[in-house]
Amino acid sequence: MRRRIFRPLPVALVLLTFTAWSRAQDESSKKTEFLRWIDDNHGGGKLETAIATYTNADGVTVHLVAAVHIADQSYYDGLNKTFKDYDAVLYEMVKPKDAAPPQPGEERSSSMISVIQRFMKDTLELKFQLDAIDYNAPNFIHADLDAETFQKMEEERGESIWTLMLQQMLKQMANPPANQQEIGFGELLNALTSPDRARQLKLLLGKQFGDIETQMSGFGGTVLITERNKAAFKVLDREIANGKKNLAIFYGAGHMSEMEKLLLKRGFQKTDHEWRVAWDLTEGATKDDPTSDKKPQKKVEPGKADKNGIIHIEYVTHR
Q1: In sequence order, which residues have a C-beta less than 8 Å from that of residue 224 and are 6 or more positions away?
Q2: Contact residues for 245 (Cβ-Cβ < 8 A; gap 6+)
Q3: Is 252 within the bounds of a domain?
Q4: Does the model's pTM come out above 0.85?
Q5: What is the pLDDT of residues 194-242, one digit of tens each?
């Protein structure tokens, strides 16, 4: 009997790329991860996002703050605190031109993207980014395409988020990532009918996000990723010209690999990398099942965490 497999790319895309209103070689040259799943080998784990830091010869520092758009409240509380230390936080949000960001709890777009995000928030018992981040902070600056421009550019190219999802799903079905765990129908059914459904679904989904660059590889050059990144960097260049020295770009994790390349081309060098816990599924985790025929996964030993649970990785630039 053929095993039914589910590939969660649409969920990854919605959670990692789109806020809509309507990782004996030098460490600094290694591939940067912006999203990872850390398995604790005891039935739980953590989904973590990165803050990667880059500096240039003029003393300008840019932090790429990768995000997932639904997460634990503590994750957003930590980001709100960190954002206060930056001269400017350039944020993503496809919203009508000149419209203010919505207030927490304010009624928003009934678009399918928003509907999916709200559904996932409720189903996974997480908080929605727009309800938890203070977008009205004085150092927050919109750095994205407006809704009208976004729609016009997609129409001109014949793109839509749904056609891009379908194309990438077909691509992954033909050439599935070697290191991605597939979700079987039985696993999904067990999670949906479990007394702790939200946790079990998060465990299934979290393990899919380990190689975001591979999953997002088909979106380079699109309005969804590339054109929005260009818009963000246009604002970045303007704010640097205006004298800002310590800036953050707060975007979905799916954007960050391309953004890092843009920074390196501008003469920035990577100087720091830290991890933030977005989904903590270690508390109350079940013990290993001795009857399981699954091979134990290799345990990942992250760097030492500080009192706030932040894992720092220092980089030394060799000249």
Answers
A1: 17, 18, 159, 161, 164
A2: 59, 60, 61, 87
A3: yes
A4: no
A5: 888 888 888 888 877 765 555 665 566 788 899 999 999 999 999 999 9
User: Does 96 reside within a domain?
Assistant: yes
Q: How many domains does the chain have?
A: 1
Between CA 57 and CA 73 the distance in angstroms is: 37
Domain holding 83, by residue range, is 5-23+32-287+300-314
Q: Which residues pair with 247 in a beta bridge?
A: 62, 88
What pLDDT shows up at residue 288? Answer: 39
Name which of 6-15, 66-75, 288-297 the model is least confident about. Answer: 288-297
- Measured distance CA(259)–CA(244) in Å, rounded: 19
pLDDT score recorded for residue 114: 67
Backbone angles phi, psi at 147, to 5 degrees: -60, -40
Tell me if 192 is assigned to some domain. yes
Separation of CA 55 from chain center: 22
Q: Give 85-110 pLDDT, tens digit per residue.
A: 999 999 999 989 888 887 776 655 55
Q: At what angle do helices 9-17 and 161-174 cross, to 10 degrees?
A: 130
What is the arithmetic mean of pLDDT over 123-128? 90
Answer whether residue 266 is part of any domain: yes
Closest CA to 89 of 123, 51, 46: 51
What is the rounded distance in angstroms from the CA atom of residue 52 to the CA atom of residue 85? Answer: 15
Q: Is 73 exposed, middle or buried (0-12, 13-18, 19+ CB in 10 A)?
A: exposed
Residues in the chain: 319
